Amino acid sequence: MSYVNDPIGDLLTRMRNAQNARKATCSAPHSKMKLQLCELLKKEGWIADVKVTGDAPKQDIEVTFDPEKQLLLSRVSKPGRRVYAKSEELKPILRGYGIAVLTTSEGIMTDADARRKKIGGEVLCTIA
After folding, report:
1. Distance between CA 104 and CA 75 in Å, rounded?
2. Chain segment 53-96, per-residue pLDDT in tens
3. Do 19 and 80 touch, CB atoms closer than 8 A?
4. Looking at residues 14-42, what average pLDDT do you find?
5. What whole-number distance in Å separates Cα of residue 108 and Cα of residue 110?
6. Pick from 86, 93, 84, 82: which is nearest to 115 by CA?
7. I need a labelling partner for 111 at 20 to 30 A (CA). Which of 40, 67, 77, 104 fits?
8. 45 by DSSP, 3-state: which?
9. How far is 125 from 85, CA to CA, in rounded Å?
10. Which of 18, 71, 33, 27 has its CA nearest to residue 52?
11. pLDDT at residue 2 above 70?
12. pTM of the model
């Protein structure tokens, strides 16, 4: 059994590799935070679908990509260097065409939502 130090980074790398290999889907081990991140990406229109497969102790998250979108995923906050930002410090990604995903006291949200609610948090990743 392999152990991953950075599960969010592992999910983003799996998604990046699957898209570069022109796969329609990819799967990753299940966790609540990864599921919330994928559901946020689905709600924002970056991926087509996300679902949980498998039985309770060993579940996977299956991500279905939108065929017209090529995602540019990059991890910002890493286990060795956490990046936190106040709501005033959050700038639009790619002039508003991309999003930054933050984990805040009110859950996982995009940078635009965090600016609107005037709350900061840890910047997990950027998607363009």
Report:
1. 16
2. 999 889 999 999 999 999 999 999 999 999 999 999 999 999 98
3. no
4. 97
5. 7
6. 86
7. 67
8. coil
9. 12
10. 27
11. no
12. 0.93
Q: Are 127 and 96 in contact (CB under 8 A)?
A: no
Which whole number is the average pLDDT over 34-63? 96
Task: Give the strand order in the sheet containing 25-29.
Answer: 25-29, 58-65, 47-55
Asked if residue 34 lies in contact with residue 11, where contact means CB atoms within 8 angstroms, the answer is: yes
* pLDDT on residue 21: 97
DSSP letter string over 52-103?
EEEETTEEEEEEEE-TT----EEE-SBTTB--EE-GGG---BGGGTBEEEEE
Mean pLDDT for the chain?
95
Neighbours of 124 (CB within 10 A): 20
3-state percent helix, strand, coil for the chain, nearest multiple of 5: 30, 40, 30
Question: Which residues does residue 61 pair with via DSSP β-bridges, in sequence order?
Answer: 28, 52
The arithmetic mean of pLDDT across residues 102-118, rounded, is: 96
